[in-house]
């Protein structure tokens, strides 16, 4: 895996420690998906510690979410701050209901879209391979649905700087992505006979990087700061379906969950300089994007994937692109 195992990777994993989150989220409402375990849980803990008035934990498993809420509030001695909201990114109807619920909030200052899936088991969800549905289609659907509330918060509270932060991964540098050159790329990736599930998670993260870059290019950073964060290899439950090799890698090289979660907070604590950017170790680091992403072919692939994904989303919620 030469695309990931660079000197910079080892420096990040074994030497560099992202800064401990400081600053104030007082009075703010923060959404974190996938916050019942792992990076999301620790990020929510930091958000509560930094004074957020309302922290919404978006989870598939409400019982686990309630346990996380109790843990976070007890550790910070701040009862009643967290709310557990159910959402399943593999279900369009679930994401739509969640987005409609967000639209009714008085304000939304920041969102960390952290929920994701890493699996080697092929399964369809909403007509597409499940990893693609969760990490790309469902995640972008969520982002587009909550964007109007982030914009409205900026309009009502001009001193705020709303953030829409996507949690991506340095493994986006691993896969070759020749499928972008073909018609119906997402359908091809959802063909069980052709799907290479051993690299599906890295490929899904490459697609996510592409659509986030395209989204950021269409959103004014002065309204909403759109960025993406790479937390590095961390101890979490993300790879519970990803196989033995990934598990061994984590055992040897992974950061602690808390240290990794610092990078998520960095995404919503940074300024306008991070708009449209890739952050690693809590710092803006666009050179961390793969050579492909930064190439002319990468730009073409970005447009191609964006058009395919948003065509799906327009079918799910007609007019959704007007949210941009």
TrEMBL record:
Keywords: Oxidoreductase. GO terms for molecular function: oxidoreductase activity. Pfam families: adh_short. This is Short-chain dehydrogenase/reductase SDR.
